[in-house]
Amino acid sequence: PSTILVIFGVTGDLSHRYLLPALSQVAAAGQLPKDFKVIGISRRNLKTQELLEDNEAALKKYIEPLQMNLSQLTDYSRLKKYLESSHGKTSLKRQIIFYFAVPPLAVLPIIRLLGQAGLNGEGTKLLLEKPFGTDLESARELIEETARHFKDNQVYRIDHYLAKEMAQNITVFLASNAIFRSIWDNRFVEKIEIDVAEKIGIEGRAAFYEPTGALRDIVQSHLLQLAALTLMEPCSGVFEFSELPARRLAALKSLQPARQDSIVRGQYLGYRTEVSNPRSATETFVSLTVTSADPRWEGVPIRLTTGKNLSERLTEIRIHFKQSDASQANVLTLRVQPREGIELELWVKQPGYERKLQKLPLHFTYEQHFDRVPDAYEQVLFDAMHSNPGLFSSNDEVLATWETLQPIQSRWEMDDKDLQFYKPGSTITEILKTRLPPNGV
């Protein structure tokens, strides 16, 4: 449908690094609506050319800036009049999408003011970035307050990992390959490991990261959603993505709280200096192991691990199959980033007179077979404009993830003695095997 995309925070880092480049690609692919407009909201009075980089020229004919004070109701009333006078009154045939590229604390006040100004009609949608709250209580408050002004089907909560090609391919992979679908349970799977490793530190984002930490930033969203995609019942059809939210939710609700002895909480050396807090207990590394009450997965440990300032950047899911009496164990790796693809470790006879086994990879990568892999934000924008909710987190999913983590958060609020320290550039294996004493002394 005809679409007006209103971006709150258009001059921010998120817009310039991800959102506007993604819009440019969608425009270049000819996938924007025929009647499309972007209104970039800023506190400053800007010209159109100030919003765009050289590689975003495809957006020039679509975008225009608008100055607003986001804390003033009168400015929202002015925005409503501007939308109606410039682009015609909103109807069911035209939609207005409000994209929140703003700090988390600014989200709820903007939602309230949109509602009070009457900018919450049937043809409007909200595109919200994570984090969705900071704990179970705040998530409930955010959901309840949003529901006072907008219906559930108007709210699209973004976890861009769900929109990555390999994450989408997990359900397709199982639905379309009978050999794996038939062995996707505890009869054949020994354990599951899901890692999100980052080579960078906090990159000057102390104001965001210090009160957030790895548990809220990555585990609550990306890791638990990847776990849900891995554990859920495959969809009834290969591309029945409308079933995804309900199936992910069922998988999340089956997760059992992590055992205390499985939790590793770490911080890289030098972090306290970066955030100017010599007593900071904010974790930059988390590893925990959960299990599922789903009979298909009972007894299978699922290790979730994330960390900053590690030796490499990767996001991958490793499925370890059980070793039978007559064979070696195999490992299936679903790599979300970088070099998105699938790899299966196979055991073969090593050529020669002696009878020896050798482990070799059988692999597929997107870059080998496709000219270009769309960025996750391109898929997010495309699906939001087409009202496809499958790759967005539902209210119940958000609450289920916080319920899983609430026992950990409660313990950490009371005690930080379990905080370990690791050297920048460490591997996940090194951190899990070797724990340095406080401050690395």
Helix/strand layout:
Blueprint: E1 2-8, H1 13-28, E2 36-42, H2 48-51, E3 63-67, H3 73-87, E4 94-100, H4 104-116, E5 124-129, H5 136-147, E6 155-158, H6 165-176, H7 178-181, E7 189-197, H8 206-209, H9 213-231, H10 244-253, E8 255-256, E9 264-268, H11 271-274, E10 285-292, E11 302-307, E12 314-321, E13 331-337, E14 341-349, E15 357-365, H12 366-369, H13 376-385, E16 392-393, H14 395-414, E17 419-422, H15 428-433
Parallel strand pairs: 1-2, 1-4, 2-3, 4-5, 5-6, 7-11, 9-17
Antiparallel strand pairs: 6-16, 7-12, 8-10, 9-10, 10-11, 12-13, 13-14, 14-15
Helix pairs in contact: 1-13, 5-14, 9-10, 9-14, 10-14
Key words describing this protein structure:
441 residues, alpha/beta, ten-stranded mixed β-sheet, seven-stranded mixed β-sheet, 35% helix, globular
Summarize the structure.
The chain is of the alpha/beta class.
